[in-house]
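User: I'm new to structure prediction. If I give you an amino acid sequence, what do you actually give back? Let's try with this one:
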Amino acid sequence: KGTLVFPVLEPFQVGEVRRKAIALAEGLAFRSTEAGKVAIVVTEAAANLVKHGGGGQILLQALCNGEVRGLEVLALDRGPGIANLQEAFRDGYSTGGSPGNGLGAMRRLSALFEIHSVPGGGTALLASLWSARALGPTPHRPLEIGGLCVPHAGEEVCGDAWDAHQDPTRSRVLLVDGLGHGPGAAEAVREAIRVFREHPAASPAALIELMHRALHGSRGAA
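Assistant: Good question. You get back a string of structure tokens that encode the predicted 3D arrangement of the chain. For your 222 residues, that looks like this:
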């Protein structure tokens, strides 16, 4: 179903995104205890956007690992950032007058928890939670790759795209930016993605040349 995007600019929106996350988790067969963990993580992430980030977005996406279902939570803001991440994870630490258990609790409840913050440049927080623990070891991958494309305001399609291909010896990642935005840009990036997928053994230089030829007559892309 793709990624669900929720703006979180006001306190009342924290409850809204929590309810949406719980409903999504229940639809993924999360038990009540597991859905409760989702509620805590999403509530803390959304509340932090309002209290510390000047507002931002929560993005939710379903995950699948065989028969096991999960939920990925991404919180983005362009606020002041976190000056000392290590200190911010300490239980009891708070800059907003709260109990200060947020980041530490979120990390303990999540199967995967990552956070990147730039003072003056905002914060990105990623958490994944699963309906049950996957049996056996997870497959080895040279890199854990993920990306996100969101349409320009007022558009239904995104004029940017990404793709990746991995084998035992190397990882290739494509980032493509269609000129402008909207359907014309989306058409150009789809063509670039097609070329990337159809030539998994081509060198970067050869791929660029192939894309250049394929995009002739389109709006073009970088």
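You can read the tokens as a compact description of the fold. Here is one thing that stands out. The two ends are 28 Å apart (CA to CA).
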